[in-house]
Amino acid sequence: MKRALVTGGSGDIGCAICQRLGHDGQHVIVHGCRHPERTAEVVEAIQAAGGSAEAVGFDVTDEEQTRQILSKLLEAGPIQIVVNNAGVHLDAPMAGMSAAQWRLPIEVCLNGFFNVTQPLLLPMIGTRWGRIVNISSLAGVTGNRGQTNYAAAKAGLHGATKALALELASRGITVNAVAPGIIAGTSAETVFDQAAIRRLVPMQRAGEPEEVAALVSFLASEEAGYLSGQIIGVNGGVA
After folding, report:
1. CATH class, range 3-182+210-233
2. Residue 144 predicted with pLDDT over 80
3. 28-86 pLDDT per residue, tens
4. Which pLDDT belongs to residue 192?
5. Helix 36-48 / helix 12-23 crossing angle, nearest 10 deg
6. Which among 30, 120, 150, 231 is annotated as catalytic?
7. Cα–Cα dist 188/215, whole Å
């Protein structure tokens, strides 16, 4: 059993990833920040299904707090699977975007990736086995109107993924990014109606969180040991 940390584990995609990794036999550290009650529910669901899990709470944008919490977690041993799923978007056309709106997605999606991942690397390297999976977005590949801030954060995450993959390739550690398109859940339902989904997605449906989780499960597995530095879309056929 390996220890897996999933940030943003209380959201639709995060919850599905946590439950899938729990099903796979990993000990899942379910991270949350704003909704501790949801984080606890995810842990309870994993345990009820016979899996192993615990909850942890911290703000990924707070470097010092993050390091303190991770240091405590590392006392129990290395964390060999890291899923950087915590993210936020704050949409606005750039012509009307405030500096605060510009910074928030970058703080959470990109700086949060660094704050969480960097302290875990040396212990992971010591085991000569690891899986780092960064949850990105189609917006980081194609761009999206009203999301220059979010697209910039996710595109930056893609560059970091590729560079870190090169740094860790000889240490038995893979680094990949998953870029979902429209995925069913509370976030998508407030933005896209069924007509829009049929127009935008070749498969004419939204993806399911479990479909993203299935890919993450594979990337976190032994079988994915030769797959690294990739940005993999889960988007229903969007080119």
Report:
1. alpha beta
2. yes
3. 999 999 899 999 999 999 999 999 999 999 999 999 999 999 999 999 999 999 999 99
4. 81
5. 30
6. 150
7. 20
Tens of pLDDT, residues 96-119: 999 999 999 999 999 999 999 999
Per residue in 152-165, pLDDT tens?
A: 999 999 999 999 99
Specify which residues 28 forms β-bridges with.
Answer: 4, 53
Under DSSP, the state recorded for 26 is: P
Among residues 21, 8, 12, the alpha carbon closest in space to that of 206 is found at 12
How distant, in Å, are the alpha carbons of 4, 46, 49, 204 from that of 28?
5, 8, 13, 33
Query: What is the model's pTM?
Result: 0.96
How far from the centroid of its chain's Cα atoms is residue 112's Cα? 11
Residue from 42, 33, 182, 30 nearest 107 by CA: 33
Token pair for residue 159? 């560059």
Count of alpha carbons within 13 Å of 44, Cβ hemisphere only? 6
Work out whether strand 52-57 and strand 81-84 pair parallel, antiparallel, or are unpaired.
unpaired
Q: Which amino acid appears at position 90 of this protein?
A: L
Residue 226 annotated as catalytic = no
Residues 6+ apart with CB under 8 A from 47: 53
